[in-house]
Write a structure and sequence with these properties.
The protein is of the alpha+beta class. Among the domains are: 46 residues, no CATH class; 107 residues, Immunoglobulins (Immunoglobulin-like), CATH 2.60.40.10. Helix content is 13%, strand content 26%. The chain has 1 helix and 9 strands. The strands form 2 sheets. Strands 2, 4, 5, 7, 8 and 9 form a 6-stranded mixed sheet that branches. The longest helix has 30 residues.
Length: 233
C-alpha cells in the first residue's frame, strides 16, 4: 500500500495552536509589564492545557505530533520602594532670647567738699552745767559738801564763778561765794530747809583785804539744783 502523506487538515490545527500560543504569550508579557509598572504582586502563569489533534478520517491511525508547551518561568516582580520626596524636616532654630542689658550705672562725680568750720558757740552764751551732787541730796546741818559743775570756757583774770544759795520760794541769796575753779566746798551753817544752788560767771575783782567788788554778770545762770539741809542730831 502506498504511504500516506500528511494532509493539509493535519497542519492546520498545528498552526492554529501556535497562533493561540503566541497570543497567550503576548497577553502574559503585557500583563507582566503592566504589573511591574503598578508594583503589584506578580501573577502566577497557569500551565497551558495540551491540545491533541483530532483523528484523521483514514482507517490507519497516524500518530499525531503533540506540542507540549514548556512551562513558562514564573516571573517574580521585585517591588521597589519608590522614595517619597518629603521635604526635609526643618529643625527650628532657637530664637535668641534678648537678655535686657542692665542700665548703665550712673557715674557719680564727687563734688568738691568745702571745709566749713563749725562755729564754736561763745561760752559766755552757755550756762555752766551742775555735775554734783545729785538733785535733792540731804545735807546735815553744819556738814561740808562738795559742789561741782562744768563750763565750756576759760575764765579771764577778772572773772569768777558766783555760787549762790537761796531758800525755796525766796529770790534773795543766803549764801554767796566766788570761785576761780569748777568746784567749791560748801559748809552749811544754815537753818534746816530746802535750798536751791546755782552757778554763774561774773566779772569783778577782790581787794587786798578780801573785799569782793562785783562789776557784772557775763553769762547766763545754771539750772538751780535742790539741796535739803537737815537739822543736826
Amino acid at each position: 500500500m502506498p504511504a500516506h502523506s500528511s494532509s493539509p487538515q493535519t497542519g492546520k490545527p498545528v498552526n492554529q495552536f501556535r497562533q493561540r500560543l503566541l497570543i497567550l504569550l503576548f497577553i502574559v508579557l503585557a500583563f507582566l509589564l503592566f504589573a511591574r509598572s503598578r508594583t503589584t504582586v506578580t501573577p502566577t502563569v497557569a500551565a497551558v492545557p495540551t491540545e491533541t489533534s483530532p483523528p484523521t478520517s483514514t482507517g490507519t491511525s497516524t500518530p499525531t505530533a503533540t506540542n507540549t508547551p514548556q512551562p513558562l518561568p514564573s516571573a517574580t516582580s521585585t517591588i521597589q520602594s519608590t522614595p517619597t520626596n518629603r521635604p526635609p524636616t526643618q529643625t527650628p532654630s532657637p530664637t535668641p532670647s534678648q537678655t535686657p542689658s542692665p542700665p548703665p550705672t550712673p557715674t557719680v562725680t564727687p563734688t568738691a567738699t568745702q571745709n566749713i568750720a563749725t562755729p564754736t558757740p561763745d561760752p559766755y552764751t552757755v550756762a555752766p552745767i551742775i555735775t554734783g551732787p545729785r538733785a535733792g541730796i540731804n545735807v546735815v546741818q553744819n556738814r561740808r559738801i562738795l559742789l561741782e559743775w562744768f563750763w565750756n570756757g576759760t575764765l579771764a583774770a577778772d572773772e569768777f564763778f558766783d555760787i549762790k544759795l537761796r531758800p525755796d520760794g525766796q529770790p534773795a541769796s543766803r549764801y554767796v561765794a566766788w570761785e576761780a575753779a569748777d568746784a567749791h566746798e560748801f559748809f552749811a551753817p544754815l537753818p534746816p530747809g530746802r535750798y536751791f544752788w546755782s552757778v554763774q560767771v561774773l566779772r569783778g575783782y577782790i581787794t587786798n583785804d578780801g573785799t569782793r567788788v562785783f562789776e557784772s554778770f557775763v553769762g547766763p545762770e545754771s539750772q538751780p539744783q535742790l539741796i535739803i539741809v537737815l537739822a543736826q542730831p
